[in-house]
Each structure stands twice: as structure tokens, then as C-alpha cells.
Design a protein that fits this description.
alpha/beta, about 35% helix
């Protein structure tokens, strides 16, 4: 069995996915661009509140994250506008004037051993803290504060679904190309027109 020091980001993401699922979060999307940065995990509660979970595997990884504009420039805490130069078109669909610029909740998820070795007061007051041990158990060390009460709209949820589908099919395409290249069996994509025949 893995020890707590052996946890990698994928392990933590998997256990946080399981934990969020147990709380009734149906929208749990990895590596998604909703705001002006990529979220390691974005979950949406049954009430429509978005929770960003930033996964960190080491103290240095965590300290580097705290230097990002979302923390340093106060975007998460007080909703300060992100740089206009950042591309709003990369975020989920919806009217740009009403798009959220931050999640409702923000959390860090990290191995228990990393959290236990930290000085108190290192993390921002708004951040929730979840730890994961070597057995995959998740502990809520600190509950996040509500940053704002605007809920995700249906259009924003559909945008999340579109991003998940596009990522899935892009991965399938990469795997098919890799498998074909390894076997030397490269198919002409124009010959596979099953949808057109339906």
C-alpha cells in the first residue's frame, strides 16, 4: 500500500473525485479552464455552487501556487478583475458580462504529510484545506468560505459538458493514432463514415 509521501497528483485527484461524488457533486471536471486560469478540479454542488480544488503534492508546489495572480492580486478573495489582456474567449460559454471571474469556494487538496509539516497561517484565510492519506481517506481540515453566492447557470454547465466531451474525443483520437502508428495499420479516416450512413 502507498504511504502518504508517495501520493501523486492523480491519486489526490481520484480521491477528491470520490469525496465530491459522495457529497452529491455531479459535475466534477479535471483540468478545466473556466476562469482566467486552469482549475485542477472544478466541482459543482447540487445547489449550483462551483468549488475549485487545487491539488498540491509538496510544500514548494503549494508556495509556488500562492504566487499566482488569483491569490496575489486578490481575484479569489475580493473578485478583483483579472487582466483584460487575458483571453475571456477561453472560458466556458455565456455572456462575457455575466461570466464568473472566480469560483464560489476555493480549496487546496494535499497529502496529510505535507499539511502536517506546514506552519499555521501559511494558507489564505478563504481557502479550504483537504488532506488525503496513503489509504485514500479524505479529511476536511478547514472548511472554505463562501466567496460569492452567484450559482452556475445552465449555459455554463453545458459549456462544462462540451469541454469534457471535446477532451474525451481528442484523447480517443490520440490513442487511435498512436495504436495505428505502432501497428502500421493506418486507416484512411475518410473511409469511416458510419454517422453519415445512419
Amino acid at each position: 500500500m502507498q504511504g502518504s509521501n508517495d501520493l501523486i497528483a492523480a491519486d489526490i485527484a481520484w480521491h477528491m473525485y470520490q469525496y465530491a461524488s459522495s457529497l452529491g457533486h455531479a459535475w466534477i471536471t479535471p483540468n478545466v479552464l473556466v476562469y482566467d486560469w486552469e482549475s485542477d478540479l472544478l466541482t459543482v454542488s447540487p445547489d449550483g455552487f462551483a468549488c475549485e480544488i487545487e491539488i498540491k503534492v509538496s510544500r514548494s508546489d503549494l508556495m509556488n501556487d500562492l504566487q499566482k495572480p488569483k491569490h496575489r492580486e486578490g481575484i479569489l478573495m475580493n473578485g478583483a478583475k483579472a487582466s483584460i489582456a487575458r483571453s475571456a474567449s477561453r472560458r466556458i460559454d455565456g455572456d462575457p458580462s455575466t461570466r464568473p471571474i472566480r469560483p464560489n469556494f476555493f480549496c487546496f487538496a494535499l497529502p496529510c504529510s505535507v499539511y502536517r509539516g506546514m506552519q499555521r497561517g501559511t494558507l489564505p484565510p478563504y481557502a479550504g484545506i483537504y488532506t488525503v492519506d496513503g489509504a485514500g481517506r479524505v479529511f476536511e481540515e478547514k472548511r472554505p468560505i463562501l466567496l460569492h453566492d452567484r450559482r452556475m447557470t445552465q449555459n455554463e454547465l453545458l459549456g462544462l459538458a462540451r469541454r469534457m466531451h471535446v477532451r474525451y474525443w481528442a484523447q480517443v483520437g490520440r490513442e487511435r493514432r498512436t495504436a495505428s502508428a505502432e501497428t502500421g495499420n493506418v486507416k484512411d479516416p475518410s473511409g469511416d463514415r458510419g454517422i453519415d450512413r445512419a
